[in-house]
Amino acid sequence: MTVVVLLAVAAGLVFAHRLYRTVEIFLSGAVLSVISSYGVHVVPDRQTVYFGLGSDTPLGLRMTPECTSAFLVLPLVVVGAVMIALRPRIQSRVLFALGVAALAVVVVNQFRVLTLVGLVDWLGVDTGYYWGHTLLGSMVSVFGGAAALVAFVWLATRK
Asked: Which GO MF terms are attached to this record (predicted)?
């Protein structure tokens, strides 16, 4: 039964990715509202958060399918389903590991958004967006995703 539920979650991440991105951008907006001294506005229909409102560097950031954490969580869910199907007795470890790794990927993606926002605020829109999205943002995603994968494997397979 758990394998079927995990595969349904995986399908949901693919077919309902727009809803997932909307939730993720709401989370970004909430975090930015807490730490920003400027205005923040979320437009759920466009999966967009506008930040820096009232500052010299306002910017809208759209959560595209390539920028969401859903497609980093998806392989973890599928691998977790396969692991449970092959060895049902490790179900609780795999589910715990999956929860930790999925949470880590979401947190890393939020940190990536915060990195981008901070660099736009510090370096301006053109330079800050380039460094925050293309370079540092990608590095944060790669290292964070790798750390989540290592944590998943370690937690799921340890005795």
From this structure: peptidase activity
